[in-house]
Structures are given as C-alpha cells and as structure tokens.
Amino acid sequence: MFLENASRKGYIEVICGSMFSGKTEELIRRLKRAKFANQRVEIFKPKIDVRYSDEDVVSHDSNAIRSTPVDSSGNILLMSADVDVVGIDEAQFFDQNLVEVCRQFFDRGIIDVCRQLADSGIRVIVAGLDMDYRGVPFGPMPALMATAEYVTKVHAICVRCGNLAHHSHRLTADSKLVMLGEKDTYEPICRHCFRELYNKEK
Known about the structure:
Layout: E1 11-17, H1 23-36, E2 41-46, E3 56-58, E4 64-66, E5 68-70, H2 74-78, E6 85-88, H3 96-102, H4 109-119, E7 123-129, H5 141-147, E8 150-154, E9 156-157, E10 164-165, E11 167-170, E12 186-189, H6 191-201
Parallel strand pairs: 1-7, 1-8, 2-5, 2-6, 6-7
Antiparallel strand pairs: 3-4, 9-10, 11-12
C-alpha cells in the first residue's frame, strides 16, 4: 500500500525528554508549520491519553492540534495513506504488551509502523518520554531513537534545584508503569536530585 509513494524521501524525527520538557509543544510547532506549508498532515495519539482532550493533542501550555486517538499503532498505517507528514504523540504508551513480551524483536508495533511510513516517503514526527518514572528507558523509545534520522532531546527545569531536568519523578506510591498524570502526580528533576531521592527510598 505504501510503496507507491516511494519516490518521496521519508524520515523519522524523535522528540524526547521528561515530563514538562516541552515535547508536545515542539511536536505541535512542527506539525503546524507543515500545515502552513500546505502539506497533508495526520496526527495520532494513544486512545488512553484523555488528560486534556479526548481527541486533541494538547501541551501543558494548552496549545492544541486536532488528532485521531487510536487503540494500537497498527491503526496508524490504515489511516496514513496520501499524507506527507504523520505526527505521533506519547509514543511510549503504544503497544505496551508487545514491548514487554516481544521487545527482543525489532519489527514490532510502533517501531515498525514508523519505519514503514518513513520507507514509503512520509515524514514521521514522534514525541514521547525517553525514560519512565524509575529512570529506565521507556518502552519503544530507545529503538525509535536509534532508528530516527533526527533526535531532539528537550529538558524541563528541576523543581528542586533549578538545573536541567530529564527525570520524571512520580509523587505517588503507585508502581504501575503506565499512569497518566500531571503536576500533582509527577515532577521534573535533575540527575543529582533523582539519585538523592532514590538513595533515600532504598
């Protein structure tokens, strides 16, 4: 289905960082620029992400762009024909069952979807958390970053010391890997403050 667009040059861009680092803001900026250039754009997000809107991709600063919520990454392929640019927000939440059970295989879930789109000539812009609340690389993000032509790592500001933050510290005792939340649930902190908290909790 996608090889007919192979004359175009597709590629993958990844925007990653901690909570409150401006990932979605940057994703929206790039997608709006593409729309302004009269490119055909489709935007997707995981259906579970309903924090600000059921349908829109919304940044913490309340900037928004219309998107299509999908249950799985495979649906993105079905809805991306005849487009120039595909945007994907919160990529770390896609296909968690595949990531946990089959992570040793490269051609799985969101990673393979992005590769197929780029191979067909589509510009793919992906945003997501690079690490989970434990400081562990999050789901498909490491493989997406390795596959991408361009990787942009954005940073928040540590709420405890003011240094650059790249950890998303969870403020609750819940140990679920996937837990949507805002400032009452997470805070951005730097490496030093994260290690101090980690050592206290041991």
